[in-house]
């Protein structure tokens, strides 16, 4: 916990043990923030806002560059910490660190490119000066699946824009957030600009922080269910919000697609982070003409993969974040099977730890629960389709709209991609995330964009000055 430049340890607060999901051993302990701590953190961010918002953009940029350099020099250490508290493999954690640090570098570059403009009134009675100013103290709430990237994707643009902030990481993975904040502290970020709180019960703590009326921006990444609650509570003070919510990504293999590329794309789109990614391919729609070959080759490919401890490089899929997450995934598979799904292949898993078998299923119809719910584990449900119109209809048959993947000849894949109701489309590729690209969803997958030029806009507001001529 870090409030107004002061770190608090576990000695004077209730303690929370952060567990390694691969072996059930405690990694470290953190103090649980009280409601008063949370309010103090907001006061501290509000108190620091005026002076931070007036710092030279070049100074803000330099701080972000220095943090990028410093964390880059310790990237292996950071990746190991992510493995310990989250359970993902070291390869996934290293990829996450690279992605996470890209946001610090990108927004160091964007800090000095905030543009306003100058307009003429058509009546000729005034000059219109349009300024872009920081929105105010921000509350940044992150999930556990990307302990570094979901912090830097918010902290980077907030700092660059001139906002101060209170960060609330997930209780499962607060240690990576602590390392990132510690780096900014060591580099001399002024007191109160960045605050970190770890309340035991997020709902009441966030309500209290919003009730102060000081928070002018809420950036949330997490489930759609919690996003809905936060949209309601931020309405009270008309807070500007960014919502990066759940996904249910369709993965389409069109007639004539390269099966080899589609299989590799599916592995990437599904197994990154063990399937615990909002961008994970959730349901695979495969043209009937190639479904048998695709299924067979995917099963063969999966049979070469291993599930196990994230620290051993031989494993492709690590632990899920908790036993509860494994239980949720198993329940979904059981329900899917009761609704007619057929398990084609399942990998072995270690006897102990929060591990989930990579599972391939077919015989699924469009009503099966495995096509409706966000699975968040290494599960591949295959649904067959007959033509492009049906594929687009099935892919769009969800309240979510984050990302889709389309494999096929480029013209057909682009044609289909344009018809999908999502914020992002991977054409013949299983990864879309990039700090330079606008990340975000449509429908119930969210509001707003993170990363790219759009990312900093989320922390700015427009102010217009009318000047008489
Ligand atoms: P979650 O919604 O349970 O929790 C996310 C964060 O919200 C955590 O910090 C949690 O402590 C906090 N929280 C929980 N209840 C709250 C409340 N009532 N008020 C305020 N804060 C509250 O989600 P999760 O299980 O940690 O993460 C998985 C979800 O996140 C998935 O649905 C996934 O798709 C989504 N996600 C989305 C993106 C994206 O960019 N769209 C990225 C990563 C994860």
Number of strands: 20
Instruction: Report the mean per-residue pLDDT as an integer.
Output: 97
Number of domains: 2
Rg, rounded, reads 23 Å
Instruction: Enter the CATH topology name of the largest domain.
Output: Aldehyde Dehydrogenase, Chain A, domain 1
Provide the CATH superfamily of the largest domain: Aldehyde Dehydrogenase, Chain A, domain 1
What portion of residues belong to β-strands? 15-25%
Q: CATH class of the largest domain, anyone?
A: Alpha Beta
Shape descriptor: globular
Cα(first) to Cα(last) distance is 52 Å
Name the strands of the widest sheet in spatial order.
14-15-16-13-12-17-18
Name every ligand kind in the structure: nicotinamide-adenine-dinucleotide
Instruction: Describe the largest sheet.
Output: 7 strands, mixed
Instruction: Provide the CATH architecture of the largest domain.
Output: 3-Layer(aba) Sandwich
What's the total helix number?
15
Report the structural category: alpha/beta
